[in-house]
Amino acid sequence: MLYNTLGKTGLEVSRLGFGTMRLPTVNSNSQINEKEASEMLKYGIENGINLIDTAYPYHNDTLEGSGNSERFVGKFLKENSLRDEVLISTKSPSWAIETKQDFNMYLDEQLEKLQTDYIDIYLLHSLTVPDWEKVKNLDVLDFLDDCLSSGKVKHVGFSSHIEVDYLIEILDEYSKWEVVLTQMNYLDEYYQSGVMGLNYLKEVNVGSMIMEPLRGGRLVQNIPKEVQEIWDMAETKRTPVEWALQYLWNRDDVDCVLSGMTSLEQVKDNVRIASTEDIISDYDQEIIREVARTYRTFMGNRCTRCGYCMPCPHGVDIINCLTEYNIAHMMGDPKASAMQYFTLIDDDSRADSCIDCKECLPFCTQMLNIPEELVKVHEYFGSEFDHF
Ligand code: SF4
Ligand code: SF4
Q1: Which residues line ligand 2 (CB under 6 A)?
Q2: Domains plus CATH for the chain?
Q3: What residue ranges line ligand 1, CB within 6 angstroms?
Q4: pLDDT tens profile 254-289
């Protein structure tokens, strides 16, 4: 296993972190197959993984509420006396916080679920701009100060899918942030906070953890023929998983890549790749860019996320509505994009809030008929009920 320093935390972390949101299950998402999941974690830790990432809602049957991932991780570490061998990263459900007391209520419940006295890395989960304003008004920074001084939490940070400007704004508002969990893979360099966010984290020495390195598995399953033909032109032959992971580990602004693994086979493969130094040549970097360009030709519309159409006077989040629709087409995974669409975009900012006023039309750099595209988005994703 190879290790990196996680920004200013000074922690030496395995460059592969064990994500526990996609553990094997029986019957339903809340019922973790503990035997298989234990074998996976055991193998990972024995082979050098020293960071386990979980969150309050992981492995629950609904998108909210208390999940079983933390419970399983706590039980596994206790039974195997491994608590001191690993770093636990978990997350406060920022969307569910309604009062100042809620912060501590969730933290205490999480410590109990994890059967530990302290959490190594505590992140505000999936911070959106409105949630950030809400928790700030509830004195979240005082709460984080208290967590650190009491020793219940060793390092604090946040996870987020926000754009780079907001990422920087939040980072600049609190000097004690030490870790940020952000989405990145070779298709997402300019999506959400992307490479500019990672560059900034490096600049201010905040540790970077990466989510969605394989785009929920879509970069490694059902590879389109057009994409495979490009991979075949590379100087060094790699599997799609090797391409995706080594792309990230060849970046000097990436500290730890979280992979939500589902089988022992995946753990073994990822550990093998994480233990191999593999320099990607300039030519192969160009191959990666060509693969990304090819995936983009499968998009549902030509939106480039330039932002000239924003803000919509009626509050429609045009960019992200069109983006999730594009991603669904590009990756052939409507369910994953629907999950993003319904969780990351507020009710009154989704495509069906468009009133067809056409005020955005003159601004579209790609000459898109935006209201017509939004109708397609709404028809495509349907209602939340259809997906969950
Ligand atoms: S047409 Fe729709 S998206 Fe465009 S400005 Fe009007 S309400 Fe907003
Ligand atoms: S102006 Fe057009 S291309 Fe640019 S973000 Fe808006 S819809 Fe997309």
Answers
A1: 303-309, 318-319, 322, 363-366, 368, 370
A2: 3-288 (3.20.20.100), 318-387 (no CATH)
A3: 312-314, 316, 318, 354-360, 370-371, 374
A4: 999 999 999 999 999 999 999 999 999 999 999 999
